[in-house]
Amino acid sequence: MTAALAPAENMTAALAPAAAGHLLAALAVVLGIAYLGRWLARRAGQPAVVGEIAVGMLLGPAVLGWLWPHAQQVLLPAPVLEPLRALGHAGLVFFLVGVAHELRLDSARLRDRAVGWTVVGTLVPSLAAGAAFAGFLVWYDRPELRGDGPTLAFVLLLTIAMAVTAVPVLARILADRGLTSTRAGGLALTSAVIVDAFAWLVLAVVIGISRGGTEGIATAAGTLVLGLVATTLVRRLLRLGPADRFCARYPWVVAVLLGGCALGSASAAEAWGLTAIFGAFVVGLAVPTGSVHWDAPVRRVSTLGLWLVPVFFVTTGLKIWTGSVGIPWLVAIGVTALAALAKIGGGYVFSRRGGEERTGALRLGVLLNTRGLTEIVLLQAGYSAGVLTPALYLALLVMALVTTAMTGPLLTLLDNRFPAADDRPVRDKEAASES
């Protein structure tokens, strides 16, 4: 991500006046195709992000590779492609500001005994499955899958890649299906926040290892600690009356400032040995929660990012599909099955142990199997750091898409099979029957 998140003036300098119209036309086409992908996904009962990722990643090889091999030089020459890539990565940073802002927990939920069991169920089996998969690839030792990155970084990345749940996509699915206020929905969202926070911290270690071994880890850890301390201080300042009143009066100005801070923080994070993801997260976490005044600017920044993220998928697809790289389908099928089994099976078994009834436990497992855009961002960070090869990245991308696409149909199947099922925990039902 480093080159793509260069300062805005570099992008402007690289863009010749004659190419400005070309860039705008290319951007319009990409956004139009992304809109078509979202529409097709919704018609198929899928989250919009599934359509965006699929269309974006396939646009490069299908249109600019197989059908017209020289299309990229004609349609997206370097003076257009580089600014387009910068826009896509800027969109990703803006979107992650909103993701980080959503990573907040209701302290009342954490007192629920079932939360601990659900977190263990979605985390431990997935971590074990990821470690086993990584161990197999290290033993198998195929260069197109293993690459030449540090072994520890490789194993850690694949381990956490199995555990991720996409909080934004999950929240959208819960809202669309009216599950937000249900027990299964609340447990799934709370557990996903905890698990993803853990995954982002491990990713910082992975990036540190890949960029400098022990010294890289120390630099990344020190930067991360300083960033979190600064985040806490800034958040307390923003909670003061003058800042809150300014935000209420000038929300668009605050949104612009947040976007600028996110880009600057992302560039600084990369300069200090972390990935741009953490720069965006620092800004998102620094914004106070529980205030409609601050929520509105964050939502505007995140929405802009959501519209630009398809550009990120298209430019990433062009980069990955360069040459003769193909999807290793046997690996993709195997890792998809392993990932789904670990999430759904682990979520079900441990949720039952925590007191949930059968249908609620199944719903939890299915919901937590939603990996979505969060998984893609994590994989992209690993690919950019040289930990993942293009072929393995594509196999894991298939896993992310399929596990996310499974969520809707499986929930519909559960609704049809248990239309009047009560998802209260078992102990609550026993108490109700006794009374």
The CATH topology annotation reads as: Na+/H+ antiporter like fold
Number of helices: 21
Please trace the helix and strand order, writing H or E for each element.
HHHHHHHHHHHHHHHHHHHHH
Low-confidence stretches: 1-14, 429-435
How many structural domains can be distinguished in the coordinates?
Answer: 1
CATH architecture: Up-down Bundle
Brief summary of the model shown:
It is built from 21 helices and no strands. The protein has 435 residues and is mainly alpha-helical.
Description:
The chain has 435 residues and is an all-alpha fold. The chain has helices at residues 8-14, 17-43, 48-66, 71-75, 78-102, 107-110, 113-140, 143-146, 151-161, 167-176, 183-210, 213-238, 241-249, 251-271, 276-286, 292-320, 329-353, 358-368, 372-384, 390-417, 426-434. It has one domain: Na+/H+ antiporter like fold (Up-down Bundle). The chain starts with 7 loop residues before the first helix and ends with a helix. It is built from 21 helices and no strands. It is globular, with a radius of gyration of 22 Å.
Keywords, please?
435 residues; disordered N terminus; mainly alpha; 0% strand
Q: How is the secondary structure organized here?
A:
Layout: H1 8-14, H2 17-43, H3 48-66, H4 71-75, H5 78-102, H6 107-110, H7 113-140, H8 143-146, H9 151-161, H10 167-176, H11 183-210, H12 213-238, H13 241-249, H14 251-271, H15 276-286, H16 292-320, H17 329-353, H18 358-368, H19 372-384, H20 390-417, H21 426-434
Helix pairs in contact: 1-5, 2-3, 2-5, 2-16, 3-16, 5-14, 5-15, 5-16, 7-9, 7-11, 7-17, 9-11, 10-11, 11-12, 11-18, 12-15, 14-15, 14-16, 17-18, 17-20, 18-20, 19-20
